[in-house]
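Revision sheet: structure tokens.
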Amino acid sequence: MAGYETIAAASETVVSVLRDRAKSDEAVPISPEEIVLAPPDDVDADSAVRLSVFPYKITRNDQQGSQNRIRVGSDTFRKPPLFVTVSYLVTAYPGSGSKTDEQLHDQQVALGLAMQVIHDTGIIDADNLKGALQGTDSFHLSLAEQANDRIEQIWGSFVDAPFSPSVVYVTSPIPIESTREQEVTRVAERDIEMDQGTDRE
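Predicted:
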């Protein structure tokens, strides 16, 4: 069941997409281990992390799915799933070069790589979904234009983290199936009484 673990599975899937590219392309100057799921304020200056993916916002997606209950048995129905959109802050960090310009160059390369991979992906097929999302439909991974217009505001929540180049992406629709089921008893017979009325002379 695509239950309460699907948000975590979506995050695992996004990180996996980036790591797969780093693993499959020897020319990519980033190793899979340098791509992590973490908030920016957990990545310090001495860290080997080059890219972090952080789910900072989750909203309801009312445009997806039917609101009709789902039949799960002959007389049993389940409440329709909740669909959500998960927003991710993807952040790049300086490389290990000895000079500042080398470090900043590597940082920009890391962010460019992430944007290229996600742009080329677009839709994550069902075969590539991880964890609790396995067996569900594919979902979209796209650039969040409005969120990127206020990236400084998003970064304002990370008090102890120095600003690093970042971009926001969203995944949608992510399903969270309900566990609430209801048994409906069918009407087999119905007694109908008809009022014959009273004869009048």
